[in-house]
Amino acid sequence: MNKILLIIQREYFSRVKKKSFLVMTFLVPVLFIGMFALIGYLVAKQNELGDKKKVEVVDESGVFLNKMKSGGTIEYSYAKDNYAAAKSAFAKSGYDYLLYVPASITGVQLFSEKKASALTIQNIESALSDIAQSQRLLTAGIDTAVLAKAQKPISIEARQITEAGEKDAQTNISTAIGFISAMLIYMSLFLYGAQVMRGVIEEKVSRVVEIIISSVKPFQLMMGKIIGIGMVGLTQFVLWIVLSIILSTAAETLFMKNAMHAKTEQITQMQNAASPHGAVAVNQATDSGMGKLMQSVESIPVAYTIGCFLFYFLFGYLLYSAIFAAVGSAVDNETETQQFMLPITLPLVFTFVISMNFVINNPDSSLSVWLSMIPFTAPIAMMIRIPFGVPAWQLALSMLLMILGFLFTIWVAARIYRVGILMYGKKASYKELAKWFMYKE
Amino acid sequence: MLSIRNIVKQYASQRALSDVSMEIEKGKVFGLLGPNGAGKTSLIRIINQITAPDSGEILFNGEKLNQTHIERIGYLPEERGLYKKMQIGEQILYLARLKGLSRDEARRRTKFWFQKLGIEDWWYKKIEDLSKGMQQKVQFVATVLHEPELLILDEPFTGFDPVNAEIIKNEILELNKKGSTIIFSTHRMESVEELCDSIALLNLSHKILDGKVKNIRNNSRNGTYLLEYEGDKLIINADAPFTIISETNLDDKQQMVLKIKQGNIVNDVLRYMLQIAIINKVEEIIPTMNEIFIQTVSKSN
Question: Same structural domain for residues B201 and B242?
Fold first, then answer.
């Protein structure tokens, strides 16, 4: 037992002391925030950043004339010539698109030199449809004022009834938390699992492994490495969590202090950025939206979520890193690991994709429940479900299965590992691994 | 010290050790010899408890080999290696502590050995910054630091220049003098004759020869002598008490390798030769360990 502690110590400190660890710990959150900020910025400003597309409209029906609003990335102008003339002059006209609307409004065509993007087509289609619809309704004798009233959208406020009473369902914030924690677990399983694998290969390639296992059992070495690196991962996550709490508290107090100032500034910014019409809406939204967001975040049981996150991170990591260690022991260098990566990546990628597309929308469906029970898929699937609320028995069963799954994989991995680390120059196949697994001692 | 009894080890497709037994005496240097793939490394790994035998047992000072003996064995594998990016001093401490030394004791002894080998200023260096020979020196320190009763050295001299090989050889002999038993696995037969008290020869998983080096060499005496005499080449009659195996002409001297006929001794050869020639020297040709090795192995194949 004493020796395994020594190994854990070495694995832990040799990594934590590295400069790259510090850089990762402090840089990753910054990079992440930067990345999301950049994506947000690009999405928000795509209309301005995208090229202006000039569309020449030939409208034989007269319905759309001067009614299509230029905006976003599309600028409409109306042809003076007829269809045939406009079409033949199109190449030299300087327009990107030529939109042809026949008198009957059926068989509308869009011409361009380059292929039109789906978004552009969609935008033009919806612009045409809106105008055509209003026109048809008007023709049918319906007043535009009545129409505007009738078209007002309805928004739903989701409320949850629990034993403690009624509360806001916070679907959006739940989705976001599920998404972020599942994403973090998905990435960290690969990140730290690969570190275990690389560590095993390093020991094997440098041949130091034979000296170490003449002092300790292979299982001790493997477990020491897995636990040591797992603690590195935990340290990193705890630092990230602490850092982000500090950062957000700092931001919050700063925000409260400068609330008034910030709001006016924000509004002017918004006004500069968006059209005046949009700014009013945003202005209204900030008033209630900001408070609502704060309220939602506070309504999430932080300790419970973080606790579950750490559990699923830890056991998911233990489970997968055991397999990573076995793979590392079976090969002579990192390039050879490719053939064994599929069984590791497949369940992870599969769960991740299913979780992001299905589980997050159907957190209580039977497929979601099953995925959150199977140890190989549970860490990701369960983290998606937790913010939506999971029955205690399901959580307990899933955690129990997680622990059992870990014990099973570590047992299998250790049997392969103890043989693999001493095998050199032998190209390992699955058949070979099965043989190693069967060896006595 | 170490009693190896009827060890059998089978890998999936091949047999590594078939019923191998040997006794290794306390305080002696024992040579474990054999061509590549004979089973030496398998046996060494079993002694180190890296793997377990399928059947048979090993007694360490009369006790069945178990985990508590690990700290009393030092092992230098043939394929050397240490953590490339770890500081040397820290690395030696780590390895010594895995062998059960306390941190302070390990530090004290590491300093002592580093001083002894003149490598004190390597403490903060990394292994990857050293030459191969220097790395071996560090590894040697790691092997002996916990003052093992049994020292298993697999090809300890490869990678050393002659000067350093001599230094290491003297260190090994000194440890032996202080009471360490040494198992020495090698292909270099000249060092076997120089260092080993006893040997065992493995080939194709079987032990084909073992015993004291002196006895083995004596047993392989077969009445072959080298005789040198003055003058021209002589015609030796068929009634001489020996037969000639080969003859060499050296300017004004002649040398011949002869084999004494059954029932005669070297005195009979001299008596015969004294009548016809002036004898410069006579010496018995005892096969070297190398020759014995090659002979025995090729016979058993």
Answer: no
